[in-house]
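Batch job 17 of 40 flagged for manual review because the log was empty.
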Amino acid sequence: MKNKKIAIVAVSGGLDSCVTAAIANNKYDLALAHINYGQRTQERELKAFNDIADFYNAKKRIIIDFNHLAKIGGSSLTDKSIKINDADLESKEIPSSYVPFRNANILTACVSWAEVIGAEAVFIGAVFEDSSGYPDCRPDFFSAFNSVIDLGTKPETKIRIETPIIHMNKDEIIQKGNELNAPLHLTWSCYQSEDEACGVCDSCALRLRGFQKLGIEDPIPYKIRPKY
């Protein structure tokens, strides 16, 4: 245990980042990072992050405020004048919930911290299934970002972006989480509600469909649980 190297995991508090933390925990000493960016469910996501960090007894954790993303706007997650649309899982359009270049902002913060604390990897729970709607979830984006890290850090710094669930479907992510005893009951995925998940936004729909494919009850509370 003393010889474990450090990895930073970007933990939103959602399902994907929780399972990513569980995967990283097998090999690394975890340092968990959370970004507040003015999203509608910021308080609930922060609670989920702290609950997950407590579950893994993470001594290293950081909460970073990126208020500029809310000021910039352009997303239904940060601008309440923009409606969060009901789920359309067949759509190939960029949804209103896309936060412009959010993952790049998250990664820059995590890489900065990684360079300071000597972490060798930054894990992020990006999923290619989402990439048709979110361009910063594509594998090519992360490959390119690794080149940016090499060019923009000290010569002796060796940090790699790790995306262990990027080619998994949601049901495969849930199954992997259960295999690793990840605390899925502590996670929060809903885009618009902080007490009970709405059940109808894209994030809720993808999550519910994953559990339904496995024939497992999602452990978090929902206002409604449509069949997807």
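Reviewer: the log was empty due to a logging misconfiguration, but the result itself is present. The beta strands are 6-10, 29-36, 60-65, 121-124, 160-162. Unflagging and moving on to job 18.
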